[in-house]
Amino acid sequence: MEQQSDIQKRLLLALTLSFIVFIAFDLFMPKTVKPIDSNKTVATQSSAPNVVESSSAPVIQEAAPTTSITPSSASVSSAPITTFKVLTSVESDRFIYSIDELGRIAQATLLEKKFEIDGKPTKLFNPHWVKPLEIRFSDPKLNDEALKTAYTTSSSKVDLSSGSSTVTLTQKLSKTTLTKTLSFYEDGHYDLKIELSTPQDYFVMPGRRPDVDKTMFMVNQGALLKKTTGEIQILEDGDADEVLKGVSVYFASSFDRYFASILYNFEKPLSVYTQKTPEDDA
Question: Is the peptide bond before 127 cis (omega within 30 degrees of 0)?
Fold first, then answer.
């Protein structure tokens, strides 16, 4: 009995020391900064007007697809993303969403003190990465036109201090007129309705993941898919070997260590496509 008690004490001591070592490693080991381009893009596609709903903050949520077309190289060409002009500012006491002239959520700023980094409000999105709600068309010429044509807005400022509010963004193109109707709520989630005056195949970009956590310590960063089969698939940054084409999912989430953006439709599943970055690292 005495020998068994001695073994138990040694095991307990070993576990305690291991726990202390892990804590010390987390506190004192230098953190590795991730390269700016190590990410992935998840896109949904549709060819007709759809109405969808979303929740949670920040949420990027789009319509379920009605066709199955593999993105062409033209459909994933990048819009100007390093700087932007604010078309509509959505403001509450908890956050500010800045919508740019291409109808994208160019920045989401968290105002609550608990989210501050170095005493400053947290900005979720990397200015060099693909933005949430960006539209890509399958038609190369129409896609190029859309990436150069500014939207108009029904309101330059949306104030949520008195409750939910709606803004309409309109983009007039040669072959179609695109309308995004966004209803924002005080908790940060929003509903989205996309309409086209003529049927066109298009993809809605949920944007790359939030870019707040700069470490790679014991955490995954990338995308998470909840498939209609019940399977949950995680696509880690730098390890997205499989290119998905038309995978049916209930939701797709882009995430880092502490924050996530979510695109979903529980009533009608989404069809999700993924594509690697030019650097082939995500």
Answer: no
Nearby residues of 230 by Cβ (< 8 Å), 6 or more positions away: none
Q: Report how far residue 129's alpha carbon sits from residue 82's, in angstroms, rounded to the nearest whole number.
A: 8
* 96-147: pLDDT as tens digits: 999 999 999 999 999 999 989 889 998 988 888 888 899 999 999 999 999 9
State the Cα–Cα distance between residues 260 and 269, nearest whole angstrom: 20
Give the integer Cα–Cα distance in Å for 217 and 111: 26
Q: Residue 24 is inside which H or E element, if any?
A: helix 2-28
User: How distant, in Å, are the alpha carbons of 14, 16, 33 from that of 24?
Assistant: 15, 13, 20
With b for 16 or more beta-carbon neighbours within 10 A and e for fewer, the 187-222 pattern comes to: ebbbbbbbbbeeebbbbbbbbbbbbbbebbeeeebb
- Winning range, highest mean pLDDT, from 28-32, 65-69, 234-238, 262-266: 262-266
Q: Which amino acid is at 172?
A: K
